[in-house]
Automatic annotation (TrEMBL):
The keyword Oxidoreductase applies. Keywords: Oxidoreductase. This is NADP-dependent oxidoreductase. It comes from the Bacteria. Residues 5-332 form the Enoyl reductase (ER) domain. CDD domains: PGDH (cd05288). Transmembrane segments: none annotated. The keyword Oxidoreductase applies.
């Protein structure tokens, strides 16, 4: 499979299994689309997903997504119809979810009562918020005198990472593939914006904005922009490798940049990371910090697609540049 297209994904009716003890039937109300979903379709690599119980998506596999659903029936003690569940749900209008032995290391979060939990659980309090916090506050070891570069800065993880860096007092540069995305980044207060849809002159764009180089880089795209950022890292600087989305549609989606060795030569630190495996230790500290200023005041827009039938288009469009309707986290409202 090369470039993922809507024709590769099919909306089909599936039978619902009868509930057994420990399970709930949910009606999905919101579902996320995320770049890592494309990596679940790669035959080779990304084995951490298997370790975490999430598994590969082979032809014919039903899909799943971080989302928000309402409980219709329950065979799990303490959870009743009308309660809400946030977590990895079947990418379907309805699904059966095991609450006693969930896939993945973060158990679904249950909210009791008639009021839906805030949509912040889809983004800044959920997985993309957790990723941005791990990247910038934990692995990035952000300092106020840093010059920071964030690629894919107008997207879900990037936009929150940018705001953590701004809140930490750093001088922040960020890239987006559209004029609207770059204008939005400037409205957040970044010192300069770059166009990553022009990888050929990304080095020059960066040199103009950061003559003396960068201290901390958050990489999300891969390819020429990653190489340009590595060339701009200062001695003993830090690079946090969060993702390589520009390569996910290829057959070899984890190509190392040609100049990776420069980091060793200048004593810089490279920290690749994936979120699975961090939940047990870091989820609670993250939740404490994200619920209070500055994070509680971050701008965290949702880019909403409507209807389950739009889920495929929403996912495919996330894997190419310049197909955003707006900044922030892309989600589907059912
Ligand atoms: N390490 C982890 O555990 C973890 C967790 C979550 C996410 N991630 C990674 O973080 C990155 C961002 O994820 P996200 O959820 O926040 O997505 P996102 O930034 O909201 O969406 C991806 C954006 O990347 C840009 N892009 C996509 N394909 C591109 C291409 N071929 N060339 C250039 N730009 C391209 C597009 O923005 P423009 O339209 O502005 O170009 C697109 O909207 C991804 O690499 C993802 O895999 C990692």
């Amino acid at each position: 499979m090369g470039v993922l297209s809507v024709d590769d994904l099919e909306l089909v009716p599936l039978p619902l299994e009868a509930l057994v003890a420990g399970e709930v039937l949910i009606e999905s109300q919101w579902l996320s689309v995320d770049p890592y979903m494309r990596t679940r379709m790669q035959a080779v690599g990304y084995d951490y997903l298997n370790r975490d119980g999430m598994g590969k998506w082979l032809p014919g596999s039903p899909l799943s997504a971080w989302g928000l659903g309402r409980v219709l029936e329950s065979k799990y003690g303490g959870v009743v119809p009308g309660d809400w569940v946030v977590g990895h749900l079947p990418a379907a209008s309805h699904g059966v979810l095991a609450l006693d032995s969930p896939a993945g290391s973060l158990a679904p979060l249950v909210f009791h009562g008639q009021d839906a939990p805030p949509l912040a659980w889809l983004h800044q309090r959920g997985m993309t918020g957790f990723t941005a916090w791990l990247a910038m506050c934990h692995y990035g070891r952000l300092r106020p005198d840093d010059t920071v570069l964030v690629t894919a800065g107008a997207g879900a993880v990037g936009s929150l990472a940018v705001q953590w860096a701004l809140a930490g007092g750093a001088r922040v540069l960020a890239s987006a593939g559209s004029v609207a995305g770059r204008e939005w980044l400037l409205s957040l207060g970044v010192a300069g914006v770059l166009d990553h849809s022009r990888p050929a002159d990304f080095t020059e764009q960066l040199a103009r904005l950061a003559e003396e180089g960068i201290d901390l880089h958050l990489e999300q795209l891969g390819g020429a922009t990653f190489s340009a950022a590595i060339d701009a890292v200062r001695p003993r600087g830090r690079v946090v490798l969060c993702g390589l989305v520009s390569q996910y549609n290829g057959s070899d989606p984890r190509r190392a940049p040609h100049n990776l060795r420069r980091l060793a030569a200048i004593g810089a630190h490279l920290q690749p990371f994936v979120v699975p495996g961090h939940e047990a230790v870091f989820w609670q500290p993250f939740q404490q910090q994200v619920a209070q200023p500055p994070a509680s005041e971050f701008r965290a827009p949702l880019e909403v697609f409507d209807g389950l039938e739009s889920w495929a288009e929403a996912l495919c469009g996330l894997l190419v540049s310049g197909r955003r309707r707006g900044p922030g986290k892309r989600v589907v409202r059912l």
